[in-house]
Design a protein that fits this description.
Helices cover 53% and strands 12% of the residues. With 188 residues, it is an alpha+beta fold.
């Protein structure tokens, strides 16, 4: 016992009797429970969002915005992300991709690459890519509208003279409108 106290004195700069009393007191006292820190605002918002929108989740909007950068321009023209859902038995989430029917085999062959890239951009846990065929919601990029130029008086007279021989008034009106549309459209 005496050797133990001396070794305690050598190791500690405290009084050995005070240290022994402190150990005895700590042995019979319970510590107060530490209260957990409050959840961050982001964590609470994520929990509420998952309850309200269970089938899509918060990441689908960001994924739709970044889709061409994630999968590349060629794949982005023929497919788009539809939803991110729970995986069921699979560990992770399931990404559902809608693609045009003509490109479904190409998207199927690229599904492993799509899964890896989406998992990397969203922070992981995309376990599976499901492919659904159908028309894309964005419908592709709209064709640029061609500007119309006004018809010159000579063109208008020539057009009127060419349709004057048509006897049916409805047909004459329709052919005249078609001729005006063809002549006034500028080619880029």
């Amino acid at each position: 016992m005496r050797g133990t106290i001396l070794s305690m004195v050598n190791r500690s700069s405290l009084d050995p009797l005070e240290e022994a009393r402190a150990r005895v007191a700590l042995r019979y006292q319970r510590a107060r429970p530490v209260k957990a820190l409050p959840n961050s605002f982001g964590k609470v918002a994520m929990q509420l969002t998952r309850k309200k929108v269970p089938d899509k989740g918060p990441a689908i909007g960001r994924l739709k915005l970044m889709w061409p950068e994630i999968v590349g321009e060629q794949l982005a023209k023929v497919c788009e992300p539809e939803k991110i859902g729970a995986g069921g038995k699979a560990k992770g989430r399931v990404l559902t991709v809608k693609c045009i029917p003509a490109a479904s085999t190409m998207v199927q062959h690229q599904s492993a690459l799509i899964r890896q890239r989406v998992a990397a951009s969203l922070g992981g846990n995309i376990a599976e890519v499901r492919i659904v065929q159908g028309p894309l919601s964005r419908g592709g990029q709209p064709a640029p509208r061609k500007r119309k130029r006004p018809l010159s008086p000579e063109e208008q007279k020539l057009l009127n003279d060419s349709v004057a021989t048509i006897e049916d008034p409805d047909l004459r009106k329709t052919v005249l409108a078609l001729g005006e549309a063809v002549l006034t459209t500028e080619t880029p």
